[in-house]
Amino acid sequence: MSRELLLRLKLIAYRFSIRPIRVMILKDTKSLKIDGESYTLQKGIEAEIPLWAAKALEEYGVAGQVESNITIEDIARVHFAVVSARTPADLEPLPRSFYLEAIRYIKELDEKIRREFRAELLEEKQKAIQYLLEIVDKRLLLMLQSMRSPTTLAEISSKLSEEEIVLLQELRDDIEAWRRLVVPLGMEKS
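Above: the chain's sequence. Below: its structure in token form.
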């Protein structure tokens, strides 16, 4: 993976971690300063704070998320839609931040499994990973197929996630550079 691609993907993940989410305050706590803003944490109040801060407060039992996280059912729905797509035109857009939400969901399952090992949690995690792998493989295949036609590529670009757009741009640039090496200028077909 190129350094530029890795950097761009890390920036997408960083933006995800600082996006505001709503939490319910579960305990009275002193005022906190998060990213330069002060928050009064009184039990029963909802607050909108960055995701990374919400996760930290949740770990200490101070807050609980109000927004619902992705579930295995959500991943299964996306999986069904993706594996049903036959051509790039059949591709449906992914829910916002799908990959990052799915990764977060799998990590949360890991934490639950460490705390209380239950076979059904392990099964759910394995199913989520399998679905995610099949989603990635099928979408990648359709993205590669779309690269053969500028029209198809333009049609599906609005259906791609940020991560997929970054990858597709990198692939397109690499393929063009390779083509210029293999077919020197002046030798292309007119």
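The helical segments are 3-18, 51-59, 72-84, 98-115, 119-146, 150-157, 162-182.
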